[in-house]
Amino acid sequence: MNDFPQEKIEDQADWGVEAYPQNVTITSLQMLDSALAEQPSELPQGVRIERAQHVTPELVRWFYAVVGGPYRWYERLGWSREQWQEELDAEGSEVWILTLDGTPAGYCQLSAELMASSIAPTADVEILYFGLMDWAHGKGLGRLFLQTVIQRAWDIPNRHHLPEVHRVWVHTCNLDGPHALANYQARGLSVYKVEQHQEIVLKQPLGSWSAMFAQ
Asked: d(Cα 166, Cα 121) in Å, to the nearest integer?
């Protein structure tokens, strides 16, 4: 998942990073049948995947900055606490946290949307944000984590007042991690749309540290 807030980038000269136009390829993927989802593998010792039961704007904003800072996630850095809270309060909003040896290693934010139908309403669940911290890459955690959150997306009506899930979907782009698209496809998600846009992006990502404090 990547954000491209043009006005935000152009207005933030104090970030100290040059912005320039770049062609960005955005790939949207979906899964229309829960039977296509992989069964989650057994987690190695020290690895835990848990839903944040008391998630706060401060927590999810920290994950967004630390995980997304190396990959040009900028759009929400200027969000108010109220904006974060409104999204977290929505029915079907969930945050899942990956830890390794008690240390946060990644997070996923799910977002459900009610879909009208002449037969019966259904829900679409978006993998809104998914990623690992820099130090957690290369350990096989991305596969394990994505297996689990796809399953949790399908069974989200068990935890919320939502109808049956019709599809699980996500979009990624060529500015995301180099293995993001392959991981989504290997976990059973199929490409249904590819778009290319010219966007104004930062020449260099802010990085996790600077993104934590950027406004």
From this structure: 9
Task: Tell me how far apart the terminal alpha carbons of the chain are, to the nearest angstrom.
Answer: 20
Determine the residue type at 68: G
Tokens 């998600």, located at residue: 189
Lookup: tokens for 173:
């782009």
Q: How does pLDDT run across 128-152, given as a tens digit for each residue? A: 999 999 999 999 999 999 999 999 9
Residue 3 to residue 13: CA distance in whole angstroms: 18
pTM: 0.91
Local structure of residue 42 (DSSP, 8 states):
P
- What ranges in the chain are assigned the alpha helix state H? 6-11, 57-68, 81-89, 141-154, 180-186, 208-213
Please tell me the predicted confidence (pLDDT) of residue 116: 82
Q: Which of 83, 74, 76 is nearest to 15 (CA)?
A: 74
Q: Quote the DSSP letter at residue 43.
A: P
Kindly tell me if the per-residue pLDDT of 8 is higher than 50.
Answer: no
The Cα–Cα gap between 90 and 9 comes to 28
Q: Where are the beta strands (DSSP E) in the chain?
A: 19-31, 47-51, 94-100, 103-115, 122-132, 165-173, 190-202
